[in-house]
Task: structure prediction
Amino acid sequence: MELIEMKDIKKDYFLGETVVHALRGVDLTIEREEFVAIWGPSGSGKTTLLNLVGAIDEASSGQLFIEGQEVKKLSDDRQTELRNRAIGFIFQGFNLIPVLSALENVMLPLEIKGASFSNAREAALGRLDEVGLSDFVRHRPDKLSGGQRQRVAIARALVMNPPLVIADEPTANLDSETSHKIIELMRDLNEKEKTTFIFSTHDPRLLDQVKRLVRLEDGMILDGGNEK
Amino acid sequence: MIKWIKIALRNILKNKRRSFVTLLAIAMGFAAVSLFGGYTDNTYKGLRNSAVRGEGLGHLTIYKEGWLEKGKIDPDKYMFSQEELQRISDLAEEDEDVILATPRLYISGLVSNGRTSTIFLANGVIPRDEKTIRGAWASFRPVKGEGLDEKKSYGVEMGEDLAKHLDLKPGGYGVIMATTLDGQMNALDIEVAGVYDTGSDATNDKYIRVPFTFAQSLYDTEKADRVVVLLDSWNNTEAARKRLLGKLSENGLNCEIKTWNELSLFYSKVKGMFDMIFMFIFSIVFIIVIMSVVNTMGMAVLERTREIGTLRALGLKRRGVSLLFAIEGAMLGFLGTILGIVLNVIVWAVIRVAHPTYIPPGISTAVPLIVNLVPQSMLTLTVFLILLSLIAAIMPARRAARQNVVDALGHV
Result:
């Protein structure tokens, strides 16, 4: 069974009387363990596509299946549970909770699920160690550099051991050296833990690290199945 | 849950100034309501004592059925005979809450010093029972002179202003006149055995206390118009009334029983006025607390829209988001009331030390301003304000929870 299956997905936005066609009939299948980049210029529909795959937005038409379940048919609570269990998010702006330490931020998805404090803490410490932040567990986000914050976000995305991690422009706010390190880290985790990664970027320098590239332009996939 | 409490607390501390203003509004509201509640508690206690002990109403007054409606037209018919008085007294004193049941006869007429006359209202009481009823009140408003005495049947206690008008002092003599129950004019000599302050301008120039037998002699009767019952606690008033009414009825005595608060017009009026003022203050505090919490939580929701989007993306359900903000609101209420309790205690202590006094309207002497600390009321108010803050936070919290995740994440 495919991890993600999109069938003729369309997404329109209404800006007053103007209709913006963000996605114009996308068919995309993503298997488990893939490391996929969604590449395209600004306004091509990358973020919209990732939002739909992440079940945080609803398509105007078409069908989206995650682990075989049609997302549209799930209630808001079931979609939320699906996100918590099966999808890790890495945001462009890191989106860490400012009043929580790095460790508490990483523990958050587990605590939302209802895991005990000790289990959540143990798992979070393990993930922070993997991303090289063992010495920064007590630091709050405002005391961390951009690269460190994104590492915390990666640890948080992985702490539930989800089959899928979605990263929307994860390197957009980072310098090129840090960007490469972040993509390398994601790649390592993909290979080591077999977690599927889908990330969007418009930086061509990062593309040599991906296994599969999906090119998007004007809301349509131009090139979707390239194995590099 | 601990995690959400931790997040709520840290967010409150993060916006120190805004949170402090909200906490101060809740605290001042709490202190205002609690202090006024403490003041009315003491006032009600004083008025209750004044009615039960000072006015000598006791806790219950038993009348023959029909007395209150037609007693003035045909008093003899609606008064208790000696035999009835004995039975009522015996039945009442069987009750475990009853300390005393004593007959009374209210009389009115003219009192004279030999040169000038004026009207009077008098209460015919059994001196030893009156002492029991007055209890500690006697030392609060002591009688100047010897006071009523069983052995001196013509010795009376007179209101201060009435004694002043008639130029009578303890030891002075006068005459009181009234019509008997048969309609004959009767007059008896009196000796002013004591002078007392009734506590009210309206009664100080009219009231006299006379021995019960003296009142009977003046009205030429062996009857009494009422029986006053003193209970061990005012809290038992209603229950005792029900029991007594049942017991009297079972024994063929058709009576009406009035409670002290029904008879004390002054108490009822003052309580009505204070209750209204309390509701007014409470309503203002209610609005201030709601507005402050709604404003603070509304700002918090607006500022933390992206955070809400993130939490929703990480798997927090809508009700989880609502809960998070509701906890924050409740915590504001909790911390605000804690601060309110501190403020309350400080003001209470200052009043205790400064010991201010004032003369209330209609009262003849200055009374101290006393504010009671009423733990039960404070606890109720604390719970109420926490719930109020929680409810006030629910509105913005629901708005936060309803937001579209993508819109929330894209919020700048």
Observations:
- The two ends of chain B are 29 Å apart (CA to CA).
- Chain B has 15 helices and twelve strands.
- The longest helix of chain B spans residues 16-54.
